[in-house]
């Protein structure tokens, strides 16, 4: 039997809006540097939201893909191509438009330094690849869809809204970093749909892309 709480949280836009306002509050706290990250808090909000709605992570895409080889292959190709596009075209263009460099100063310690490099790789595959994709492409994209409506336009608005929040979650990289991360989020969202709303392609793509980036920084080859 469906509970009244479950129905309210699933179907009533007012309660969905309240939930999203709580999400926005944590994003603002992060932007103001009151909290170091929003994603961890949002992960638990997402977990609680799904639990109250009698849902689980598999229902929004965190489930075994039909074909692992296909999933891994697409992820590797997508990560390499997008990293090349980002370094060769997007970042230089964004920096020219904003007249502000991409701020990667917090990663300077990775250069020729094994310990921070290994820590960064571990973080990229746990916090970045898994937590961020579960939160932004899994929980938030679907929750914005619930608010805007289960239509093509609703999904589009969901992609844009969740990507904006993802961009601002990287405010430490400056305006250029926010913009590049927003575009990256659009790509990850597209890959979510390429995988038929399965999160494994964006998770793997995110992890591989970050691994390439950190490796280039470590080797002193990142432009």
Any overview of this molecule?
The protein is an all-alpha fold. The chain has a domain at 64-218. Helices cover 74% and strands 0% of the residues. The chain is built from 8 helices and no strands. It is globular and about 55 Å long.
Quick summary of this structure?
The protein is mostly helical. The protein is 74% helix and 0% strand.
Order of helices and strands: HHHHHHHH
Strand fraction equals under 5%
Number of helical regions: 8
- Average pLDDT reading: 95
- What structural category arises from helix and sheet content? mainly alpha
Q: Low-confidence segments, ≥5 residues, pLDDT <50?
A: none
What is the straight-line distance between the termini? Answer: 58 Å
Q: State the total count of DSSP E strands.
A: 0
Task: State the helical fraction.
Answer: over 70%
Overall 3D shape = globular
Sheet bearing the most strands, described?
A: none
* Radius of gyration, taken over Cα atoms and rounded to an integer in Å: 18 Å
Secondary structure: elements and pairs:
Blueprint: H1 4-11, H2 13-31, H3 39-52, H4 68-98, H5 114-148, H6 152-168, H7 174-194, H8 200-218
Helix pairs in contact: 2-3, 2-5, 3-5, 4-7, 4-8, 5-6, 5-7, 5-8, 6-7, 7-8
